Every structure is written in structure tokens, then in C-alpha cells.
Amino acid sequence: MALQKISFQNSDGHTLIGRLELPADQHPHNFAVFAHCFTCNKNLLAVKNIGKALTSHGFGVLRFDFTGLGESDGDFSDTNFSGNVGDLVAAAKYLEDHHKAPSLIIGHSLGGAAAIFAAAEIPSIKAVATIGAPSNPVHVKHLLRSGVDEILSTGKATVNLSGRDFTIKKQFLDDLETKSLPETAKALRKPLLILHSPQDDTVGINNAEEIYKAAHHPKSFVSLDGADHLLGRKEDSIYTGEVIAGWAKRYLGTLGVQEQGLKTKHQVVASLNEDDGFTTQMKVGNHYMVADEPTSFGGNDFGPSPYKLVSAGLSACTVMTIQMYARRKGWKVDNVEVHTSYSKTHAQDCENCEDTTAKIDTFHREIRLTGDLDDKQKQRIMQIADKCPVHKTLHSETQVISTLLE
Asked: Which residues contact 305 (CB under 8 A, 6 or more apart)?
């Protein structure tokens, strides 16, 4: 199972509930911890999409509910920003004890600020990514503006946030005042990626500028142009996850770890969770891929369909075979381009052609050759195309031997 429900305790003894999502072969090259936004939870769609994008690149991702939120124990009204940071440290300790210490930490909104503070306390963290993060935790006060006066005068107030009521106590505000994010970011000295939308009307883009100025290199900024603060559009959260994965690989040395982590005797592993529709995580050798179905078939179109993958194998094998043959013969072939598609069509020659419903699996392949070749050479190359190993496999009698793994 690539998605695991896990639990761990924080420093106050509260049980926190999370989800650990693993890549297809369940042996990630690196682990990441995700800190969700203020009063959100681990199941926010944007959080799940970012996690899936990371696992499709071979990361293991732990997302969990902070104390008093979602499925986790504790009273939210008794929590504060320091407690969130402590929860992240506890999550990192869980990974270290049960899997491998995390090397990447990601935080969204106030979770981004918490991620920077937590990174300073977790030695294994090698890279930090923030999404729509405030440059100072005190920024969250503006979300509580309807109740700040009451909190200061009576010690607590009920505040409605995103349609839900939360009790906020004065100790929460007092704790925010003790935190200086610019100072922490300046002292961090770890690679930092800052993602922020210019249209974010909850945490303004100037916050990204302030964090960027405070931090030391290596630091990067990516504009999430057109996105809202919660990354409500699916394409925005998926893009965010893809960017983080690509950026983090530069600092986490994933290639060597991937080679060591191939712990299956098979060349390809595919994994699909119950609630993922057709979106399938795969590990193909040392490479991570996603397969899917088109939206017209009920999929998300996040990757090629199974038959398109077979067609891709035929196309790739064809161009490799042709170029290998041309080099051996000393023929000048500047480029080979192969277009392949799959369908079921009526057989041109079959034993039961009288049955008008009889169809056969058909791959339509078109080959374009660029180079100084005469007609005889081109004709020979077309013959060689039919000798590519994948072509021969598709034409041969094959067998699939299935075994149930315990």
C-alpha cells in the first residue's frame, strides 16, 4: 500500500495523525515533511496534489494534522505557533525512527513560516520550500482581526475562519510576538525555495520579498502567477509540487540514492490507491513516471495511458534500432522520427473474416527519415524497423505469469 495511515506523539503527549505517501516501489530516495496552512488539515486538496507530485518523482511525503486539527488529539485553543514547530520536529523524529530522517520540509502559508523555524531544529533537513508564507508569524493577526480586541481584553475569543469557528487564546498572540522569521531565515543557511502568487490577497507578495532578502544563498523564488492563496485550482497545486520536486533534487543527491534503492527484482512497479481514480504511480527502472487515462475516459490525464506507453516503447525501440543499424552500415541518418498510435481495427486478413465484428490490436507506425539516403537504403531501413525487439515481441507469442505477493 503506497498510502499509509500513521500516528506519533508530540512533546506534549498528544497523538497526531498523518498520512505517509510513498512512491510506487515504496522505497523513496528522500523523505519530506509537509506543514499545512493555519487551521487547515492534511486532507486539503492542494496538500494532497503537492504530495502526489512529489511521490511521482520518488519522494516519500508525510502530511499530518497539527495538534487539535483534523484527526489529531489536543485542543486547538491551547496550541500556538511554537507548538506547530514542535509538531514538525516530532514528525521528523517519527520518520527518523521508522523510515529515514527527512531531508526536505515544505510549508504552506503559516506552515511555511513554521517550516523555516523547524528546519533550524531538524539537522537532517537539507532543503526548505515555502508556499505563500508570511514573512512574520504575527501576520496571522490580520486573519483574527475580528477578535483581537476581545482576545486582548478577555484572554480568548471565538473567531470564524473559512466558515469554521475556532477559539483563540491570548497565549497564541503572545507566542507570535516572540518569533522573528527574518532572523531565523538569515541564520538557516540551507537551500530555500520561496513560491508565492502575485495575486495572493491573504498573504501579500511582499512577504516573499522580505523572506528572500533575509535568507542567504542558495535561495530561489518562483511566481505562482494566477493562483489563489490556498491553491484552489488543481493545476496550480500540481505545478507547485512539480517545481518543488525538480528544485529539491538539485540539493538532495537523488540519483545515487535511486540506484541504491531499487529493491525489486522487476523492472517496473505500478501502484494505485483506492481514491486515485486511474492516476497510477510507477517506477520504471530508476525513473519515476505517472500513467493515467484521458479525462474523456474518467481520468485526470496526468500521464499517458497504458496503451500509449506500449506505443511509446515501440516508437523508442524503432528509432534506436534504425540508428544503430545506420551507424553500423556507415549511412548518414540525421534524424529518425517515429509516430505510433494504437487502436482495434478490422483485421485485413484473419481466419474468421466473415465475422464483421472481428477486430485485431493494431499499431499504426509512420517513420520519417532525414538524411542523405537513396531509395534502396530507405527500403532496407523500413525492413529493419520491423526487426526492432519490441516489434518482434508484439508479434510473438507471449505469456504473463502472475504471482500474488504477501
From this structure: 291, 292, 293, 294, 297, 299
Per the structure block, which three cell numbers stand in for 210?
A: 522580505
Cell (9 digits) for 87: 509538531
Contact 160, 187 (CB under 8 A): no
As a whole number of angstroms, the distance between CA 139 and CA 203 comes to 8
Positive or negative, the Cα torsion across 333, 339, 342, 343?
A: negative
Coil, strand or helix: which one is 150?
helix
pLDDT digits (tens, 9 = 90+) for 106-154: 999 999 999 999 999 999 999 999 999 999 888 787 777 777 888 888 8
The DSSP secondary structure of 65-125, one letter per residue, reads PPTTSTT--S-GGG--HHHHHHHHHHHHHHHHHHS----EEEEETHHHHHHHHHHTT-TT-
Question: pTM for this structure?
Answer: 0.81
Residue 124's Cβ-count burial label (10 Å; 0-12, 13-18, 19+) is middle
pLDDT in tens, 299-335: 989 899 999 999 999 999 999 999 999 999 999 999 9
Do residues 134 and 113 touch, judged by C-beta distance below 8 A? yes
Sort residue 253 into left (φ over 0), alpha (ψ -120 to 50) or beta: left
Rounded (to 5) percent helix, strand, coil in the chain: 40, 25, 40
Strands (E), 278-379: 280-284, 287-291, 333-346, 359-371
